[in-house]
């Protein structure tokens, strides 16, 4: 495996990325490739990104992992993560990876580029696949399709959802009166049990704008998943997900076209790829061999 650092433009921001190549390539080789997306406020060097990258490279794929705007080493306002802007970042990353001479330098077949994401990245992956026909395959791990329903279940304790809605309203009032964003702690937006918080890696964002939460609330990947039809879509979720409700992937699958698959794992939790689960690896590998070989 070899890798090189890259940067590319996305709506005026320079985004930082890394292209990795599988072993054994000849100068003439052109391989299928994957964009690998990080989760909520994460970055390109988290286990939820590096693990699927290593798995894909071992199977012969080129990978591009990158920091979304405002995350990691990319330009942009830290903590201001707008879902549709991340979709734009994905489109621009795809254009970059597929373009000449970049494609020839990285051995990429520009007509065979897929996308894989975890959690927030899974939702963005599905939405991007639904609105950009250039994306050849979509894999979502622990993703979500309806932000409002997701938050309702994530803030399920008595009074918690009303408190969350009040936070969104407070953010709107704060912006209107001050012209500035209200900053909100990570776990007030997406609650994560204490036993999983060690999975939030150093360098991940801890404070977000209220507009970030509103953007997630409004985001509806399930509205466009049907447009992926005729291209393969794989949904992965833990049966007892402590972060993103499992029902989110079930509901997306119900609205997906064919070919699509949903796999639910009883022996895992939210960070499926980071847990390096052998069953997840086997299912993804078999699915890729059937639907999107390198």
Characterization of the model:
- The chain is of the alpha/beta class.
- The longest helix is centred in the middle third of the chain and has 19 residues, at 160-178.
- It contains ten helices and ten strands.
- The mean pLDDT is 96.
- Helix 5 (147-154) packs across helix 8 (210-218).
- The protein has one domain (2-146, 220-291): Alpha/Beta hydrolase fold, catalytic domain (Rossmann fold).
- The protein has helices at residues 47-58, 83-98, 102-106, 120-131, 147-154, 160-178, 186-189, 210-218, 247-255, 278-291; strands at residues 2-10, 13-21, 31-37, 62-66, 108-118, 135-141, 183-185, 207-209, 233-238, 260-265.
What is the CATH superfamily classification? Alpha/Beta hydrolase fold, catalytic domain
Tell me, what's the shape? globular
Architecture in CATH?
3-Layer(aba) Sandwich
Radius of gyration (CA) equals: 18 Å
The number of distinct helices, counting runs of at least 4 residues, comes to: 10
Main sheet specs: 8 strands, mixed
Approximate helicity band: 25-40%
Number of domains: 1
CATH topology: Rossmann fold
